[in-house]
From TrEMBL:
InterPro entries: Protein_Veg (IPR009366). Pfam families: VEG. This is Veg family protein. Gene3D superfamilies: 2.30.30.100.
């Protein structure tokens, strides 16, 4: 992904509403993987609406610094975009 916080925010702004897979470091060698849609971006954080059948809560938010430090990895699902068109 991008190299600065501003670049990360701008690239996420361009992908609002797109499906993604998110891998987050859960601590103590745990990795959490979630699927959802990039819902909103704010000056310091971004919000992902999660798939309800897989998760017990609706939304999660992460900071752009989490992406910069690779605590969070985001992969946009281009195949779902092609299937929806």
């Amino acid at each position: 992904m991008a190299k600065t916080l501003i670049d990360i925010k701008q690239s996420l702004d361009l992908n609002l509403g797109k499906r993604l897979t998110l891998k987050a470091n859960g601590g103590r060698r745990k990795t959490v993987e979630r699927c959802g849609v990039l819902a909103e971006t704010y000056p310091s954080v971004f919000v992902i609406e999660l798939d309800q059948q897989e998760n017990s809560f609706e939304r999660v938010s992460y900071s752009y610094a989490d992406v910069l430090t690779e605590t969070v990895e985001i992969t946009f699902d281009d195949s779902a975009l092609l299937a929806g068109q």
